Class II glutamine amidotransferase (Asanoa siamensis), 278 residues
Amino acid sequence: MCRWMAFSGSPLLIDTLLYKPKHSLIDQSQHAELGAETTNGDGFGLGWYPTDPVLSGTPGTFHGVGPAWSNRNLRDLAGHLRSPLFFAHVRASSGTAVQETNCHPFRHENWLWMHNGSIRDFARLKRDLLLEVDDALFPLIQGSTDSEAMFYLALTYGLRDDPVPAVERMVGFVEATAARHGVADPVQMTVATTDGERIWAFRYSTAHQSRTLFYSRTVDGLRAVHPEVEALRLLSDQDRLVVSEPLGVMPDAFREVPESTYSVIYAGQDEMSGFNPR
């Protein structure tokens, strides 16, 4: 499948988290430990919100079809871009083409979306799923992935107004469509989406055996447990990180997101609740 990371907090250079930790996302692109595949080399993507207040509502994106570990432009950008909220994704294709329009995160207006997982037998379900997308949104679909289809279905169901019910309706519609086609256990997902102010992260699968997802403990709590770690003094109490697998910095730095759960991260806070497809 894929590996991804979402950060929210005080502005920092993206390479601080993308490259420097022991088990960074770049390391996971070659040596994933908890994913369905060890290697995630079918493209990558970065989405970030600038610190410039004039531009802060519009995320920038950068995608490549090669492996993240060898892309010189990604390394250079990450060492020069400072952002208070960014997404990073390394892709292992589940069957669709390796092309830039299939690389996450996907963008619509001020929203970003990225996904690890799949819709089972997507080729069989694709027509019925895409016909549900709002007429005004349909022409904006650029790629061929199930992930982008999920994004535009969620937008159709009101993602921009109320994200959680929109994603619940999206998953419920995919499951109902799969049932009509005789496809069992169709949804496998860990999804992150953001409007530039809040991050919503979802962990769910129809079979209730979801891909892994973790969130960082509060920085002040980590400082209390690890006063000897110098790097913790450089982080803000508002910094939050959601990852497909821990970055290997400290064994107790991350907690697993429970099955069938979503989390909302904003202004240095995080809240969790049950996720129930409609």
In short: The mean pLDDT is 91. The two ends are 25 Å apart (CA to CA). The chain has seven helices and 13 strands.
